[in-house]
Amino acid sequence: MTAWTMFSWRRLYSGRGAESSEDTRVELPADTRQLVYNVYVYFSRRPGRSAKTSLAKTARATMLPREIVADIIRDRYQN
User: Fold this and answer.
1) How far, in Å, CA of 49 to CA of 42, rounded?
2) Contact 54, 40 (CB under 8 A)
3) DSSP assigned state of 66
4) pTM score, two decimals?
5) For the chain, how big is the Rg over CA atoms in Å?
6) Which of 39, 54, 56, 74 has the smallest number of CB atoms closer than 10 Å to its CB?
7) Which residues have C-beta within 8 Å of that of residue 78, sequence separation ≥ 6?
8) What's the N-to-C CA distance of the chain in angstroms?
9) Helix-helix angle 30-44:51-62, to 10 degrees
10) Rounded to whole angstroms, how far apart are CA atoms 77 and 7?
């Protein structure tokens, strides 16, 4: 199972559906948060790419809102 398949499966079958998208603070499983961070690191390794662009590409690739991706990255760098 690829990481993308795992992420899609968790997103579809997490049981939280559309009502959780309105919450400003969404609790995602630790492995999903790790996957989002890994995707961000992958996109940010290109020379000359800004953090804003990497964040936008990560949000688009993981199908998560930009604010949630930013929270995950911010939490990761605070630890």
Assistant:
1) 11
2) yes
3) H
4) 0.65
5) 13
6) 74
7) none
8) 29
9) 130
10) 22
